[in-house]
Amino acid sequence: MLDLLKKLEHWVSLVLIAMLAVVVVLATIGLGVTVAHDIASAPLFFPGVSKLLEVFGQFLLVVIGIELLETMRAFASEGVVRVEVVLTVAMIALARKIIVLELAEVSSVALLGVAALVAALSLAYQVFVKGRA
Fold it and tell me: Is the pTM of this model over 0.85?
């Protein structure tokens, strides 16, 4: 019974990897189209700060997808979830959130929460990843 569950887990992981790869490819194509459109439209080569922040958000979304692919690949091949990859994905996702954050629309309590998340992830990364070296 355990062997059957292991095989099922492995096949589900492979299906998730394939679906995530499709999503990452589509997000990359979408990012490329956005960048090409922004460069070609007026004003040439500088779409404005708000549009740049949107592009950075899309870029980080693709990076998060790539890191998630790494997590799924490691899980499928080794059968374990690597903490450093999960922490890296969380830090990139938080960085993306901070970059696209509209400060005028966010309360000070929410900003304190984001700061606490940054501190917690930094500490966790230091303990789990740098502490092992």
Answer: no
Query: Which of 66, 69, 62 has the alpha carbon at shortest distance from 18?
Result: 69
Q: What is the 3 state secondary structure string of the chain?
A: CHHHHHHHHHHHHHHHHHHHHHHHHHHHHHHHHHHHHHHHCCCCCCCCHHHHHHHHHHHHHHHHHHHHHHHHHHHHHHCCCCHHHHHHHHHHHHHHHHHHCCHHHCCHHHHHHHHHHHHHHHHHHHHHHHCCC
Largest CA distance in the chain: 63
Structure confidence by residue, pLDDT tens digits, 71-101:
888 888 887 777 888 888 899 889 888 888 8
